[in-house]
Amino acid sequence: MWTKEINEGQPPRCQAMTGLRGDQVTDLVGGVFDLLDGVWQPIRGRRRALGLYRAVVLTLYLMRRNEAQAVAAELFGCSQSTVSRIVRRLRPLLRQVTADFAGQIRQQAKRSAVLVDGFLAPTGNRTGVPELFSGKRHTCGLNIQAVSDLAGRLVDTGLPVPGARHDSKALAESGIADRWANHLRPGGPGMLADLGYLGTAAITGTRKPRGGELGQVRRACNRAINSTRAAVERAIAHLVNWKVLDTGWRGRLTDFPEVLRTVTGLEIYRTWG
Description:
InterPro entries: HARBI1_dom (IPR027806), Transposase_HTH_dom (IPR027805). With 273 residues, the chain is of the alpha+beta class. It contains 10 helices and 6 strands; from the N terminus they run H-H-H-H-H-E-E-E-E-E-H-H-H-E-H-H. It has helices at residues 15-18, 22-35, 52-65, 69-76, 80-109, 167-173, 176-179, 181-184, 216-239, 256-272; strands spanning 114-122, 133-134, 139-148, 154-157, 161-162, 191-192. Strands 1, 2, 3, 4, 5 and 6 form a 6-stranded mixed beta sheet that branches. A hairpin with a 5-residue loop joins strand 3 (139-148) and strand 4 (154-157).
């Protein structure tokens, strides 16, 4: 049951800060409240600087905008250390809140064909971490494999792999090939991809032979595949609107897989919820 502390200091509107509708934010706060067993403010001792609603909005804001914690502290009227503690506490809970819903969407998507493509999440060069530099994209980061339905709605992402990995190799290393194995089997629903996935079991176009031209039929097939496959690029564009995946991850690389799972669940919830 909701208590007064949830709404303490609740801002009237937060879609510009979080990318989520007000009702979606409210539902997430309720889910987090349940995972906390209805206790956010301590019964004894010093009260938390932010009520639960504002704390959830703060956590969403940092993932959506990827602002420095010191900037968020000024905006929300607390200290940087408070921001750090809140994010560490609530980010895993937001992933748990969206996990069941995201799982249902994945099961639903497995009934029909899907699309796959990769993108680079910038991380900067990290000492002692090899193979982050992507020659294709000319920057350091992690290769993320994203799966969408034919309408361009995100349904899954794989584990991050070093940016030097080619998409055809990252498909297997990220776990996507295993999770969507039925789509890659002959007679399965099918997984469409670009020419970067040649050599995998995904459905791709045909590369033009060196010094030659494709026939009319193969050119028509390539156009049809590319026209359908373009929807996954829209899904990726919406996913990287969570700027923590687009403008450079500042934290430890060991934390990034959990951040990616959280953002994936939130984007699926935003799109399908």
